[in-house]
Amino acid sequence: MANLRVGLIGLGMMGRHHARVIREVEGVDLVAVADAYGDPHGVAKDLPVLRNVEELIAAGIDMAVAAVPTGMHEEVGLALAEAGVHTLVEKPIAASTEAGKRLLAAFTAKGLVGAVGHIERFNPALQSLRKRIADGELGEVYQIATRRQGPFPSRIADVGVVKDLGTHDIDLTAWLAQSHYESIFAQTTTRSGRPHEDMVSATGKLDNGIITNHLVNWLSPMKERLTVVTGEKGAFVADTVTADLTFYENGTVATEWDSIGAFRGVSEGNVTRLAIAKPEPLRTEHEAFRDAVLGLRSDVVTMAEGLETLVVAEAVLESARTGQSVRITV
């Protein structure tokens, strides 16, 4: 069977990583790249740099990766859908829920694989964590809290921190919990002089009763990517920068310290740093996309899921604007 022919549009910071990984994945060939602004990172190599999505489609591709700015996702995605090209579009799915709905409808009507690049789902620490939660290792889950902060990335120009970074946490939380968001309350601030928010604090509740908390910003000098899941038997902490997963077990040893012994909550138990395999998340994501196109499995982040994440992100912004909790309806 011939390899699948892949086209890549958008050769910026994410585009260069996509190009590298596509070339590493078995069963696919990178045959065309496009970017109206050229190839600043030299990822095209021996391929000509095409100017637009129409030229990319004309190269005869089976599947595509769209790593263009968020405001271009709809235009590029609709063109690829019309041409019958399976597409992985970087997150968020689109600049607005209305645009996301049009993309979802277009790919569904054509029976194509439409995926969204929520790469955190493919982080080995989170993949292991999801399986452990599903297997009952934590018992009942009470809370999922995330912290995602660091310096401002110059690559972002057309959306704020909620739709860029915050959508990672919205998606991974719903995925870990296997539940939809019921409501969200948030506050944002803008401190960098840009037109979009650069810091958000949000708390929410999922349909299954789990409470959530998300701290996201572009204003911190330290980079932090943590997911803490607290439940009946203890807490898991996933660091997606290092792909480390640690389990903090509830204590079972009786204390002899009277003032602490009187506390009727949990106590500290064993702490275990779990040994897990650590494949590169972007490669795992591309392998899932390839296999979905081949009909072998279906664990990509679908456009329907990407749209639901964007609905929650826009509810976060609405809550921050109105000062009210917002119920989520999809």
Automatic annotation (TrEMBL):
Protein name: Dehydrogenase
InterPro entries referenced in this protein's UniProt entry, alphabetically: Gfo/Idh/MocA-like_OxRdtase_N, Gfo/Idh/MocA_Oxidoreductases, GFO_IDH_MocA-like_dom, NAD(P)-bd_dom_sf
Residues annotated as domain GFO/IDH/MocA-like oxidoreductase: 127-236
Keywords, in A-Z order: NAD
Annotated source species: Arthrobacter stackebrandtii
Pfam families, alphabetized: GFO_IDH_MocA, GFO_IDH_MocA_C3
SUPFAM superfamilies tied to this protein: Glyceraldehyde-3-phosphate dehydrogenase-like, C-terminal domain, NAD(P)-binding Rossmann-fold domains
Parts of the chain that traverse the membrane: none
Gfo/Idh/MocA-like oxidoreductase N-terminal domain residues: 4-118
Domain of life: Bacteria
